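Data deposition worksheet. Section B asks for the primary sequence of the deposited chain exactly as it was used as input, without tags or linkers unless they were present during the calculation. Section C holds the resulting structure in token form. Section D is free text for depositor observations; keep each observation to a single sentence. Incomplete worksheets are returned to the depositor.
Section A, Depositor: J.P.
Section B:
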Amino acid sequence: MTEVAIHDEHVERLNLDDEPNLVVIQVYITSARRSYEIADHYRRRGAHVALGGLHVTSLPDEAALHADTIFLGPGEDTWPGFLADLRAGCAASRYVSRERSLLGVPPIRRDLINRHRYLVPNSIVVSRGCPHVCDFCYKVAFFKGGKQFYTQTVDAAIAEIDRLPGRHLYFLDDHLFGNPRFAAELFDGMRGMGRLWQAAGTVKAVLEQPALLQAAVEAGLRSLFVGFETVNSGNLSEQRKYQNIGRDYAEAVRRLHALGVMVNGSFVFGMDHDGPDVFDRTVDWAIEHGLETATFHILTPYPDTALHDRMAAEDRILHRDWDLYDTRHVVFRPARLDARTLEEGYWRAYQEFYRWAAIWRGAATKHELGGRLRHLAYAGGWKKFEPLWDVLIRSGQVVHALPVLEAILSGFGRHLPQSAGLREAISDEGSAA
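Section C:
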């Protein structure tokens, strides 16, 4: 019988003294150096080492120096063939994904996951990729050569959800609303399961699919990650973020809050239309509209993206130290900002948004006392208690905080409030159909 183990260095210390026959490492850009160190170590010990993931697909020749086998693109279609070849003693050095489908993929071996090490052990992915193609997106390169976006069957997704214990789910899909028909059937199947869940969607989906959004809330949606990306409209066409052009960001936030859904807004600094005022403008907008949480990023030209190709052609790439391609450091020459101003502005944005005074201002935008308290609890807990989260993760006790998260989320969406504007939008959508 083959013994299989999964280890995650994010939450545990690795034991590198073992002698496995096969080592498989998922590599992303900021883990590349460490991944190569581990790969080289195990190859010296005689193991067959396979590397895959975003970074390997973007820079296969670099990764191949540290592996016996590399995988380009998603692995659902290539992994079974590799295992057969490995058993036969003829594993290839490179496997390239061509057939994109989730049909017949076996259930996830969740028994191999150390659930107690994670605050959100019930993470789930029911689709692959995204229907949009943005210049700065790392995932576009990963899915080249085949379908850019595809889903499980609804029955398979519901079966996977049903296997998960507890109430909370975190959908890690890039765009859970990307296939409206699939999403509608998924939410219909989830209704009545008593789940509380978080996911990612777009401004376009929130504004153009109000009935689908309502169905998501009725199925348990309580928090949505939304890629607003920038408050400068000129940046959107430059980065091919076409789905955001001409959209009313404030109306999208209002609709989500009207349904009791928290908003985690994502913003990117350093695009070519950004000047020194972009940091304060972005933070003020986010606080003024009551976003519960925000994540900020420095624009990063990942290898094999259209953004990287454009900046390389303009000789704006500063270096290839992948450890610093983490959206926290400046790795290119900005157009209207110097590198120091951009990096300092990024850190200041976090500091200003998560100051207690700012959290109170954001909470004050909520009309009900319960909404204000939940805003304070979630936004404050997100950043103000980071040292505590670190201790809990390192001690393997973080899962005990999950009931607190569920309690906060259960308060959102409880009454499914629906404003007159939202009712009108749903009515208009129905008439258009």
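Section D:
Residues 197 and 221 are 5 Å apart (CA to CA).
The chain is about 40% helix and 15% strand.
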